[in-house]
Amino acid sequence: MTPAAFAIPGDINLPTGGYVYDRRVLGLLPQFGVAAQHLELPGSFPDPTPRDLAEVERILAAVAPGTALIIDGLAYGALSADLIRSVRAPIVALVHHPLCLEAGQTEPRQKQLLALETAALALAKRVIVTSETTARMLHSEFGVAGEKIIVAEPGTDPTERARGSTGSLQLLSVGSVVPRKAYDVLVHALAAVKDRQWRLTIAGATDRNPRALAALHAAVRETGLTDRIAVVGAMPQERLAELYASADAFLLPSLYEGYGMVLAEAMAHGLPIVCTTGGAAAETAPDAAAIKVSPGDQSALTAAIRRLLGEPATRRSLADASWAAGQRLPRWEDTARTIAGVIKELAA
Fold first, then answer.
1. CB neighbours of 121 closer than 8 A, spacing ≥ 6?
2. How far is CA 329 from CA 29, 76, 86, 127, 256, in A?
3. Contact in structure between 107 and 85 (CB atoms under 8 Å)
4. Are 119 and 188 members of one domain?
5. What is the pLDDT at residue 251?
6. Is residue 348 pLDDT above 80, yes or no?
7. Residue 119 buriedness (CB in 10 A; 0-12 / 13-18 / 19+)
8. Mean pLDDT over all residues of the chain?
9. 93 and 117 in contact (C-beta within 8 Å)?
10. 173 pLDDT above the threshold of 90
């Protein structure tokens, strides 16, 4: 078995796309000849304290020089170049999406993260990304050499096609309540289609950003949609699978996605989709499976949802294309195999 270490900030069991990715890869790497040790870094990233950075330096310095070290981008993009240079092991950076593109930050912090991440990525031996979109961005905007970048798209599990609901159309949106997900924009867009019969469930962690949660709840109150929108928080995998199975359509109003794992889940269930073109979302969902609008364009989002609700033939066409696309998605074994190949290359 080839040894490796996988440094991940915070609780790996948190219900976010990045942590799901990390958990699944860690669990599958042994099948491809890699024994990866999980290194738990402090959970304060991407805004670590000086004390946490000192702890990270201690943890990473202990990794043997011949052991490939994968560092999740939530931490790696916030590390200084001096700290990274002190690490003896060859580093593989795993970038779900650039930290400086996370919505809700001040402009000075965005600029600081851009500088930190650019310098950090230059020092990595390899950079794993979750989409071709992110690969192109890191090459063109962060100066990462193309030969260093490897795309390892998230996997999906095979599942049955969604059965849908009876009665009012059940709409579903999944993802942590953070500014980047733009749930308040979605709520206001839905307010303009009150004349249609629908209900929306928003499933995702509600403890990541208090301001985004407050904005979401305020939007629901202001639009008078408290009886039609349920914010249910993070769900166990079994319950989340049931939400997908009983939904009639999937909505993703995100301003930016590094891949959009929830879009892949929606396609695995054959759901018709309304989403934005933010980041990789534009490519993750094929045009035939989704009605796409520009990120943050509330009126366009309303028009797309109105079309979805009012045109059964369009819903069926989108659903068929979504189901077909879902059958072609990579599996988690494909993801782990790609990453194992990177680790073995560095160990050779």
1. 77, 93, 95, 127, 138, 142, 143, 144
2. 19, 28, 39, 22, 21
3. no
4. no
5. 98
6. no
7. middle
8. 96
9. no
10. yes
How many domains does the chain divide into? 2
Find, among 117, 50, 22, the residue nearest to 79 by Cα.
117
As beta bridge partners, residue 292 has: 275
| Mean pLDDT, range 39-52, rounded to an integer | 96
Q: Which residues make beta-bridge pairs with 8?
A: 40
**Separation between Cα atoms, residue 348 and residue 338, nearest integer Å:** 16
Which pLDDT belongs to residue 328? 96
> What does the pLDDT average to over 264-282?
97
Q: How far apart are CA 224 and CA 147, in angstroms?
A: 52
In 184-336, beta strands by DSSP E: 198-203, 229-233, 249-252, 273-276, 290-293
Q: Give the pLDDT of residue 103.
A: 82
One domain for residues 83 and 184: no
Are residues 175 and 135 part of one domain?
Answer: no
Task: Report pTM.
Answer: 0.94
| Pair 109, 70: CB distance under 8 Å | no
Q: Which residues are within 8 A (CB) of 94 and not within 5 positions of it... i.e. 6 or more apart?
A: 22, 70, 71, 72, 73, 76, 128
* DSSP count for the chain of H helices, then E strands: 14, 12
What is the rounded CA–CA span in Å between residue 127 and residue 148? 6
Tell me, yes or no, whether 241 and 339 share the same domain: no
Cβ-based neighbour number of residue 303 at 10 Å: 17
324: Cβ–Cβ under 8 A, 6 or more apart, which residues? 289
Give the per-residue pLDDT at 314: 98
Segment 307-336, tens digit of pLDDT: 999 999 999 999 999 999 999 999 999 999
Does residue 161 sit within a domain? no
Please state, for a pLDDT cut of 70, what percent of the chain lies above it.
100
Q: For residue 151, give its domain range.
A: 2-155+330-347
Of the candidates 96, 39, 95, the one whose C-alpha atom is nearest the C-alpha of residue 63 is: 39
How many Å apart are CA 84 and CA 93, to the nearest integer? 11
Q: Distances from the Cα of 288 to the Cαs of 6, 256, 327, in angstroms? A: 37, 20, 14
Which amino acid makes up residue 50?
A: P
**7 closest CA partner among 58, 50, 47:** 58
Residues 260 and 117 both lie in one domain: no
Rounded average pLDDT over 58-85: 96
